[in-house]
Amino acid sequence: MKARSSLKQEFLEKWRKGLQIGRNDSTILERKDAIKLSADVAIAATRNAATRWRRALLCDVVSKNPTNKHVVEQILGHKLKNTAATTRLTTACRRRILRRGQNYRRRKRNKRSRALRKLVPGGEEMDGVLLLQETLDYIVSLRAQVDVMRRLAAIT
Amino acid sequence: MDPELEPPQLQFRSAQMGGAFDDFHGLISPPQVTGGSSFTALLELAPPQAVELLVTEDFPAKQPPPPPIFPTDIGLIHRASKFSVFASADNSLESNAILSVSNSIPVKQEELDADSRRNSSSPAGSDQSLKSGKRKEREKKLKESNKKSKSKAANDDGEELPYVHVRARRGQATDSHSLAERARRDKINARMKLLQELVPGCNKVSCHNCLLSIIVSSMGSNCGDYLGLIFSGHSKRLAPLTKCICRCVVQISGTAMVLDEIINHVQALQRQVEFLSMRLAAVSPGIDFDLDSLFTVNGSSNDNSYSGMFAPPICTEGQLDGARQLQLQQLWHCDELHQSVWARETDTSNFIAPANSLLSYDSTSANSGKPVAPRCTTS
Asked: Are B117 and B80 in contact (CB under 8 A)?
């Protein structure tokens, strides 16, 4: 598929960009984290960054470890303008959703969607329909990512 | 005309669907149906009703048989009135809706009837079966009553009216749309209350969606589907209700499985990413080498590249190997995808070997002809 191969190649390029940032990691775990980080950011940066899970993923990445920011920025090619705003929005939305989540209905019905929200980055703030859409896009990107990484691992 | 005889007559007319008296009779006959178990009874009653309801659409020209005198006349009136009060706040409209009948059945709307109902009613819990009967009635009626007007309906016994007259309540908007809205709302509320009484623990639940979802989940998937079928017959009037029920049904019975699958898939993919990144980290120190060569390699199959670039294992750092092995094994144990992943990768037993080999791999720059600038230095 043309689209998919271009997505994969795009992902590969961005991943490489992220890995090029010199990092002297001693332990394998650190290296693994760096690789994973670059891969995640790269896959999140492919295509349009309009999907929420991408933005949420990037913001989470940056907020967890501020040193990652330059990685993200290099991969993205531009500065993350709305990082702070997005994280603020995230927490506010989360709180609001949690308050509303006291509803008996949600507790009953959304057990599974809660599990799904935990998996999809930024899923806490999505409603049902949006969650499924984002999940779809996320799954496609994840598959591309896994495929590329697997090939790379197979080669090396 | 005997006013007292009117309500039962009208009720019966409204209840029957061109002669299906027996079902109605069957509906109102078991008055002792109460409690949560009654829902199944309701469901048993539902099939004939559902068939009726679905058939009602093309029911244009049937003449109602003369209304028989039911032994439970007064009781019925009483229960009906109780139910009408209980079901909605708009008593008069409710009773009007109750009294309104299908197209071909003439309807007599008299304020007297409504008043008598209202006056004689008491806010007590209404009978289960009566409620169900009322529900079916209202379903049928409201489905077929497309137009409502302010005027009183003529008292036509034998005449067929093409539409239904409903007297508007004083002081209320008499717009047909608002009337329809109100009727729909009342119907939904009434049904909600009915279902609320059936399912224990639903009393505190106010939202319709949650209630429906609870009920559907309690009933199980088959009943849920059946409910969906019942309600889907009245899609015109029940659009919001049907939608939420269908959503509930799909969510609980169908999409639940789908959601499970999705969750598993996403989890599997994320685990794969973890695993692969760990693997690449094991390979790593020269991981960012040149991916240009890997571009071309990626185009080709995995096996070719793998076998082509595989260097004989050279164990240079045994201690690191041990740690790596341990970590990798830990990863492997907790990864259920091992089988699938390894099945696709050519060689699992050689995993450590290539990892070792690549320690020297990078230095030998066997990667390709392109000059490698090691950006990630080996520690």
From this structure: yes
Q: How many CB pairs under 8 A join A and B?
A: 159
What's residue B114's pLDDT?
Answer: 46
Separation of first and last alpha carbons in chain B: 104
- Between chains, do A156 and B283 touch, taking CB under 8 Å as contact? yes
Which candidate from B291, B305, B327 shows the least CB-CB separation from A154? B305
- Please give the distance of CA B63 from its chain centroid, rounded to a whole number: 38
Q: Considering only residues A86 and B126, tell me which one the structure prediction assigns the higher pLDDT.
A: A86
CB-based burial label for B163 (10 Å; 0-12, 13-18, 19+): middle
Q: Do B213 and A109 touch (CB under 8 A)?
A: yes
The burial class, CB within 10 Å (0-12 / 13-18 / 19+), for B168 is buried
The DSSP call for residue A135 is H
CB < 8 Å to A153, chain B: 276, 279-280, 283, 345
Note the pTM of the prediction, 2 decimals. 0.36
Q: In angstroms, rounded to a whole number, what is the distance separating the alpha carbons of residues A49 and B328?
A: 34
CB-based contacts of B31: which residues, under 8 Å, 6+ apart? B127, B128, B129, B130
Residue among B379, B278, B356 nearest A23 (CA): B379
Which value does ipTM take for this structure? 0.72
CB-CB neighbours of B105 under 10 Å: 23
Contact (CB<8Å) A149/B280 = yes
CA dihedral (B312, B317, B323, B326) in degrees, to 10, reads 20
Chain A residue closest to B305 (CA)? A155
Beta carbons of A104 and B210 less than 8 angstroms apart: yes
Distance from the Cα of A72 to chain B's closest Cα (Å) equals 17
Q: Can you tell me the distance from the alpha carbon of B240 to that of B237, in angstroms, rounded to the nearest whole number?
A: 8
